[in-house]
Structures are given as C-alpha cells and as structure tokens.
Amino acid sequence: MTAVQEPAVGADREIGRERRRKEDARLITGRTRWTDNIVLPGMLHLAMVRSPFAHASIVSIDTSEAEEAPNVVAVLTGADLGEAQGACINAWAITEDQVTPPHLPMPSDRVAFAGEIVAVVVARSAAEARDAAELVDVEYDELPAALDLKEAAADTVLAHPDLGTNKSAFWKFDSAEAGTGGDVDEAIAAARTDGVVIEREYRQQRLIPAFMEPRSVVVDPTGEQHTIWSATQVPHILRFAIAATTGVPESKIRVIAPDVGGGFGGKLQQTPEEMIAFAVGRRLGKPVKYTETRSESLLAAHHGRDQWQKLTLSAEKDGTVTGFKVELLADLGAYVAIVGGGVPVLGAFMFNAIYKFPAYQFNCQTVLTNKTWTDAYRGAGRPEATYAVERMMSELAAELGMDPLELREKNWIKHEEFPFTTVAGLEYDTGNYEAATAKAKELFGYDELRAEQARRRESGDPVQLGIGVSTFTEMCGLAPSRVLGQLNYGAGGWEHASVRMLATGKVEVVTGASAHGQGHETAFSQIVADRLGVPFDDVEGLHGDTQIAHKGLDTYGSRSLVVGGEALVKAVDKVIEKARPIAAHLLEASVDDLEFADGRFSVRGTDSGVAITEIATAVFAAHDYPEGVEPSLDSEATYDPVNFNYPHGTHLCAMEVDTETGAVRMRKYACVDDIGTIINPLIVSGQVHGGLVQGIAQALWEEAVYDDAGTLVSGSFVDYLLPTAADTISFDVDHTSSPSITNTLGTKGVGEAGTIASTPAVINAVVDALRHLGVDDVRMPATPSRVYAAIQGASAGGATDGAAMPHFDPAEPGRSSTEGAGA
Amino acid sequence: MARITLKVDGSTVSDDVEPRMLLVQYLREKLGKTGTVIGCDTSNCGACTVHLDGTSVKSCNVLAVQADGREVTTIEGLADTVDDELHPVQEAFRECRGLQCGFCTPGMIMQSVDLLKDNPDPSEEEIRLGLEGNLCRCTGYHNIVKAVQQAAGQSGAAGRHRAGATTAGAPAEEVAE
Fold first, then answer.
1. How near does any CA of chain A get to the CA of B159, in Å?
2. Which of B97, B103, B138 sits opposite A682 (nearest CB)?
C-alpha cells in the first residue's frame, strides 16, 4: 500500500471533485448566525470585571456604585454565585500525581493571572454593562507573581502558594524502558567519543490562537432545557462539563454551536465565561449574552505553545542518527486547562518524526505560572516537536557539511519499510518521503535556488538567500479510545454519525463533529453522495446542536474526516443493509439476487430495480414492507479508530535576509503533502494555505509578550501581529498520495499539517542565509531586530523586552496604553 | 440622543441614537444588519468594513451620527438577494474558496469591491496592499488574492493590458484529483 498513487476517481464520482462549498452562499451574503447575532426577548447583557494583577488576594469587592448605574440588573461576584458557577475541568491528568489547582470560573479569594474574572455586571444593554463594570471597586492585595518559566520551574515564587510547588507533572517516555529502542544516554555517550553530538536549546514562544470571531455565549434558561449557544468547537464536551460540575442534569442542557468563526484549538475550552453566563442566566431566569472584546479574547482566552526545549541529538560521523533526548519545560499558565499538560504529551511521540532513531527519550515538566492558561493551538504539541527535530536535523547537516535533504533521506523510513513501528512505539501505516521530497524539490526549483544562494554568498550580496527544509509527519485523528485511556485521558476518541432518509428523497446526515470553517457539510455530502448514490445537493449536513447531533466528540486534532467521516461511512452502509430486505420484497426477488450500485438495488441479470430513495418513500408510507423488518432506513454508527493516521510532507522555504538591517522577506514556499485520499481538493488547499501562514507567523511575527508585572502587553491587534495579506505570499502547493489504511476512505488529517510543517522551514531558511556569518539560531519570532542582533553577535537575539510596539506615552513605551481595555 | 436619517442597503432608516454609538453597533443592534460583524476594538481587523457613500470604511471607526444623511451599503445590500444574485466579487470568493469560517468575509468582500473600483486591474502586490487592513486567520490570504484577481478579470477590464491577471499573479497551484 505504500506505492504512490493518485486516488481512483470515476467520471461522476464526488470524492476528489473540487465542489464549491455549500456553506459559502450564506457566508458571502451576510446571512449568518454568529452567536453574537442572537437576540432573545428580555435578554440581558453581561460585562466582566477582570483582574489587572497577575497574582493578588481579593480583599473586598464593592459593587454598590455599579448596582446604581442605569439599567443595571445585578452585579455578582464569585461569592454570590457559590457552587452554582461549577468549575473548569482538566480532562487529562497526565500523571497520577499531577498537581492541579482548583479552577473556579470566578474566584472570590485570589486571582492567579491578569484577566481573571472577579465580578460580572448584568445590564439591559452591553454598553451599559460595560460602563457599570468600570464602577465595580475591587481592592486587591498584590502577591509576588511567578512569570518566567524557568524561574517558576525552580519554585522561586509560587503561582499558587497553597500547592507548595509550581511543578504540575513530570511525564517521561524512554525507549529502553518501553522496549521500543535503545538507551539514549549510552548513544549520546558513544557519540561524544566517536561521533557527533548536537546540543541546542529552543524557545517555543507563547502564541494566541486569535480566531477572528471573538468568543460569545448566549444562555436561555426559559425553556424546559437550558439552551446555550456558544462560539465553541466542542458543544458536546461543554455540555458534559457543565452538567458534571453544576449538578444540572445533562438531559436538561442543550448546547448549540451555531456559525463559529474559527477556532484553531482556541475554542475547544470549557470557559469561565460560559460557566458564568450559565450561572447568571439560571439565577435570574432570563436569557443572557456575553460577547468578549478582542482585548479580552487576547488576554483571557487560552494561549498556546510556550515551551523551553533542551535537545540532544547524537549521530555517527557519516550522519546516521543514533539517539535523541528531549527535555521540555511547558508553561501551563495559571490553571491546568481542559487538555492542558496533555498538549506537550501529544508531541511526545513525534520528536523522532520520520527518522529511524535507535534510541529516544522524552521528558516533560509542566509548570504553573501566573499567566493566562495554555491549551491546544493548531497542531497542539506536534508543531513544537516538529520544530525541534527539523531544526536539529538541519543543524546536524550543517555540522557535517551535508545537504539537509540528503542527511534526512539517509535517516528517514524508506517507502518500502511501511508499516513501520517507530522508536516512540507508533505504527506508521503508509508514507513515501522520497516521492514527496522529489516532487517538492522540483516544484521549488531546489537546485536553481541553491545555485543562486552560492552566487550571492560568493559576491557578498548584502541580501543573502537561505533555503529551509522541513520534512514533517504528524499523528492525527484523535484518537483510538484505548490509547487515550492508556494515557489517562478523561474521554474517548470515537465519533458518531447518523443518516436520516427523508420521505421526499432527501438525506440528512448528522455528525458529532462540529465544524467552524472547515466545510464538513460539503465534504461529508460528497462522501454520502458517492456511497449512497444520491445527488450531492440532496444531502444536508447537520451538526453542532446536542439535541440534533445528540452524540459526538467534536472537532479538533484533525479528526473530523478521518474519524467522523468513517463513522458516516459505517452509518451509510447500515442504511443500505436495512434497505436490502425491503428492496427484495418490493422487487419480489431474493435478497441474494440483489446488487446495490449508484443508489439503486437491481436484480442481477434483469432490468428490474428500485432506488434507495424510493425505498425511503415506501417505508414512510409503510403500506407494503416485509414481516419482521422495521419500516425505517435511518441508521447510526459510532466509530472508534484503531490507529492514528500519519500525513507527511516536504516543505521548502526560501528566505531573503538583509544582513545590513535584519529584515527578512519570503521569496518562495513550496510544499508537497501526502494526506492520502483527498475528498475535496479545494477545501484541502485552503486548509494548507491557512495552516502555512499560522506556522510562518510563529516563525516571524507572533508572540504573546508580558511585562515584568505579568501584564500582557500584546493585548490588542496593534501589538499581537497577525500577518496581513501584504506580509504574505502565494504558495506552491501539491500532493502525493499514499492512502491511509487505518480508515476505509484512505484519508489522513490535513487541518494542522501546514502549521506543523512551516515554522521550522522558515527558521531553517533564515539560519541557512546567515550560517556563513556564524549564526546557528534566531529566536522566534525572527524580528528584524533579532536577526540583526544575531548577525552582529552571532547569538539568537535574546528575549522580547517590553512591548511589541511603542505606545502612546513616549516615556513609557509599551506601557499603559491598553489600560482599562477589556475590563 | 441624536436623530439620524440615512439610507442603508437602499432603504431609508431613521432613529434616535446615543452620540457615542458606533456605526457598526447601529447596523447590528438597531437595524439587525448582522451580516456586518465586529472582530476587534482597535480598527485593525476590518471585519466591519462597509461602504459609506460608495467608499469603504471600517464601521467601528465611524460614529452612527457621522452617517446621518449619507448612504451605507453592507454585505447584505451588495447584491439583490431576492433573486439570489451575487456581486461578481462574492461569486469570485465562492469560486476560489476565498473564505473558510467566513467571519472576515463580509469586510473582506466590501474592501475588495472598493479596491477594484479604484483599481480595476490590480497586480498581486496591489491587491495584497489594498487588503492590508483586513485580517483573515483561516485562508492565509492565498485564495482571497486569487478571488480578487478573478473578479478583476470578470469586471469589464477588457481591452486593457492585464498581463493575464487571473493566473499570472499567483503561482500555478496543482492539487491531486
């Protein structure tokens, strides 16, 4: 199954067609239902009062003036809400003895990060609520804050004094102990005497998911079920978490994720804002709405990444790798979020990537600090792992004077070696790194660009050219439930789908996945159209409402198609099997003589046949169907994958670096990804482009920066530098295909691929441009000042000081300008 | 409160508004024009872009009272929805998949329409600079740029020297089928 092949596409097959998305007609005309659009009779609006301090005791909260403000209905604190506010859960204690601070949506005694909610104002309009929030007088007693990750790991200042330590959990994988490989310390010791050892420390800076739609929640307590609309990726998980922590029966809670404007992991949380809105709605018996400002979103929605990575790679002198040791510090922020410490653990199996390391060890210490809590951001653990190994492989190549692609090929799993069990214990099902790399080199013009690089270097051009390589893989399709169980994850990884055959011949497909821009309605319609033999336009995709899609585990981790799509296939197959005896009855034939193709049962060797949609109509009338058969074709299926799947790709990036100013410019970016069978090339290319830019943005622009007091200074889009159209280029994207054998469609995940692959490609290119000047690292984001400093001092450029940009007060650049924002 | 009267998407509307009310709040909260959305508080993201007297503005950066006596067009009034018509730029965004989650899309389309009005034959660089004030987190801008190029190719730039604008500006992109 490892041969490179284009997926088989029939002339009229839907799978593989560039179908325009069904979703778009509404989105391009403004006929949308974002949560913030929802208005209900008698609806009240919430505004949050947030702590300006990273760590402080709450001495007193005086709400009297706010309560007197016009049209204010109530001002409530954590003490007022009490146990009704529930709690924010951590679903994945990565070790049995993980230290997990209790996380109340609105604490009443102490705040642990700047932005934490201490009171909520309820008013007749959002503007009046926000005005009154300014009048809530909170007296704080400021406490020392644990801010720097390394210092926090040394317990110099405690983020939660009661816990006695900032160290939450230590998680280790060792290939010798697991029996999947040799002893890494022995490999490194051997290489020190008779080989090569590369030792580096890299910083994965803190990022902010920064989805375009700010989070919003509406709670309507007026029906028999409490209905919650939320801009969430995880309506089912949210419903479970609310029920589990408030005592309200799950059956009395309905969660709806209407149109959701992006997530990238940032909306897979059970948030304090959702819990507070639920509690306030119940308390007042009125519908309530809370929509965050962008500043609040950047401040208090969970952040991502934030690791220190200490890496030791050993190799023989010919470039054959012998061992890889990884020691991580991961910043959890103030609380252990829903996935929390599980994020770096998702990277634990990926640092060895596509290479045949004989020995491997992964160590991760998760650490609590007084910063915004962190959780999954596009790629979740795997971008960090890929960055580390792909930077290290390029460093090894440079050390040995080898071409980085040749060095990689010497060490990667050859296409004839699949399926391959890695040193981390995963079985990679399919892949062909040679084919993807060959195609990428051609698409990129690798040899020509290398020649240009040599010319520029020789002529001493002030603008140097660098070429960066990233041959990534990832595990996706979260996930086999048994594997998650072994990792102590609190839930499974299955997905559910159902198919409803309507009397009019239309088909409703219900999935437990919850789209927020991916295009599931379109892709799933294509799958059903092919399998059931009905027109694409006759299939309606339904999702994101726990009363319609009653069962599901939602959308994250590149799982919707590879897990949810497979559940759908199984549900469709059940529909066909339920229709078979009814078809035989209607055709007065034996079941054994029937064949099903293109939506029709026909009697072998005759013209006699009946369409499955006709059978749907027949069972609706139910006047004529066989004894002992139920008059319905509707079916459902729950699918639990047996393995992850492993997309991979070769990404090549050319960066021009002005050695006189430190400015960098992307010249060309080409990638060839193997994501198995492609359902809709148009959707796939969009996922790749968007993923690339998020990964490139980590390399070049984005960073959540805190000042010495623990205040987020990149707390608006003025300072948190999302790339614009003018910052980016058009990409050369192509594919190879080794269909996955872990699902019947042959698909692999694509949602995170671009983000995982592109960051190291960009930094490898920047370093490659400057290698001859003695530069072997530029810390991310590789701003002009850092690149310039690296050139001058041949250092990585140091930490980001102060603010990302100067502000209004020239005496205090970067301070104070966002005072009051988001409060 | 101040009385304002203006034309929005072809209809005359009149309301008493607080002087501090932003145009985007007026559109969303008073008129129910929820096709126009709010993405930031600093006029960086452009999600709220509408046309004021035919020119694109960020409606979070205009007070409702400033729109008094003027004409506003939102994404909802760009084409005749009764007949399911689409503006060529809307059609191009759909055709080129210039959107994913769709949240930035109304603003992106309104800005693109204005960009093409000023420059019917933009280069890729001119498109990228012209959309600099509109943020998108999903698409990486690649297909948005393609959509604007495609719309430019359709919108009566015939006869000009256009250097193959629908394809030449962007690298050829091949995807397996």
1. 27
2. B97
